[in-house]
Design brief:
alpha/beta; Rossmann fold; six-stranded mixed beta sheet; three-stranded antiparallel beta sheet; 10 helices; 11 strands
Length: 347
């Protein structure tokens, strides 16, 4: 039993320990109550009595019930001081909120994404429509993450800068459509735009305050670039230097084989989707159906897990109501004792 009490005492702490400085006042409250009873005692006797009668020249000693009244008042005040000190019992540890990721999704909005060779809910569906539905589910189920959306075709544009507003991210995903930015392909421009938006978080593998490093998710049917200002090779090199992983999801066409391809607009051979993921430390997924896309999204989430810091706060169970209630009960008992003493004095 003593061990249990010692453990409970070790878990007890006070929200306002300075209130204990008021405890000595409880002695003063009891003393004032005794003084009041002592001076009020003759008033309960007969009026106009000779001062020498019954030895009233000497102050009478407080009656036992008067002393009890003073003690109860002092104890009630002490209980209220304890309540003011806010006693609290420490409970279990509160799990810390997970620190999310910066996820920027690059959507290929070229005309080839209008092919309805995928199925959704048992019906033929466009590639881009399935992509939006699958990734919207990932957004809804990722609290704490910050999402950005970039679409690219003949040029790249930001549909949504990185934000924690998941509802807005889902609405902006729904607004994307094929041929939004013309036909063509400028994956390098889209990747560089995403890296620019990530700002200072890119380049820090743990990010500010321990958040995980950002990731890019590319959805495309083949990932081949046909133009733009920045080549995929240059964007891939920049992402690798900044420590940003790129996860690529191919939703149609033939699976990428990791071999470079030639682009007339650029001198050097360009990496395909598989090579981009390999060079940046990400992963490549060939998802030619809705189920495969959902598995790819789950794999991406597992590959870039959210950081869960150790708990630093505990549950707090407030106990101030108990000494507050005890003080009220003691005050009621003091008033009861005082009333009994007055009635006996009159008798």
């Amino acid at each position: 039993m003593s061990a249990t009490l010692q453990h409970a005492w070790s878990q007890l702490f006070w929200g306002r320990p300075w209130a204990f400085a008021l405890l000595p006042l409880s002695v003063g409250v009891g003393w004032l109550a005794l003084r009041r009873v002592a001076h009020a005692a003759p008033a309960d006797e007969l009026l106009h009595v000779h001062p020498d009668l019954f030895g009233l020249l000497q102050a009478p000693a407080p009656r036992p019930r008067a002393t009890l009244h003073a003690v109860l008042l002092a104890a009630a005040f002490a209980c209220w001081v304890l309540a003011l000190a806010q006693p609290e019992l420490a409970g279990g540890w509160l799990p810390a909120a997970p620190r999310g990721r910066d996820v920027v999704v690059l959507l290929d909005t070229t005309l080839s994404m209008t092919l309805d060779d995928l199925r959704w809910n048992g019906r033929p569906a466009e590639r881009l429509a399935v992509v939006k539905q699958v990734f919207a589910g990932f957004v809804r189920g990722s609290p704490g993450d910050r999402f950005g959306i970039i679409a690219y075709g003949a040029r790249a544009a930001t549909l949504l800068p990185p934000t924690f507003d998941r509802r807005l991210a889902v609405r902006m995903l729904a607004r994307a459509h094929a041929d939004l930015l013309g036909d063509g392909g400028c994956l390098g421009d889209a990747m560089s735009l995403a890296l620019r938006q990530l700002g200072d978080r890119a380049g820090d593998r743990q990010g500010p305050r321990g958040a995980l490093r950002p990731v890019l998710v590319v959805y495309s049917d083949d990932g081949w670039t046909r133009g733009g200002q920045i080549s995929p090779a240059q964007a891939t090199a920049l992402a690798r230097a900044l420590g940003v992983r790129v996860f690529t999801v191919q939703v149609g066409g033939r699976p990428a084989d990791g071999r470079p391809y030639e682009v007339p607009a650029f001198d050097a051979p360009q990496p395909d989707l598989r090579d981009i993921a390999r060079l940046t430390g990400g992963a490549y997924f060939y998802a030619a159906d809705a189920g495969a896309q959902q598995r790819a999204v789950r794999a991406i989430a597992a590959s870039a897990p959210m950081l869960r810091p150790p708990p630093s706060r505990r549950r707090e169970h407030a106990l101030y109501a108990w000494p507050l209630a005890c003080g009220v009960l003691l005050l009621a008992a003091a008033e009861l004792a005082s009333g009994v003493a007055r009635r006996r004095g009159r008798a």
